[in-house]
Amino acid sequence: MKNIWQNKSFVLYLIGQTISSLGDGFYMIGFVWLTLELSGGKGVALGGVLSIYTLGEIFFGFIAGPIVDRVNKKTCSFLLTLYGE
């Protein structure tokens, strides 16, 4: 069996996903920071904003699931990474 680290496609995909995950983390830090700045440091406001954010992801996840099943997996993965999810 071929060593997975010798597979160029896998290594490039892993590097890309790592960079994307780092970007997502920095985005979330900025999002939380901005929310706290705009709300005057109120934790309740942060909880509300993050709840709405999470509910949106859950709701659109149910809609996107059947659509993703019908689309080319490689194209879908690329577009979702480009979009930021």
From TrEMBL:
Keyword Transcription listed? The answer is no
Q: What membrane topology does the annotation report for this chain?
A: Multi-pass membrane protein
Which compartments does it reside in? Cell membrane
Gene Ontology CC annotations of this record: plasma membrane
User: What transmembrane ranges does the database entry give?
Assistant: 12-34, 46-68
Listed A to Z, the keywords are: Cell membrane, Membrane, Transmembrane, Transmembrane helix
User: Any idea what this protein is called?
Assistant: MFS transporter
- Give the taxonomic lineage as stored in the record: Bacteria, Bacteria division WOR-3
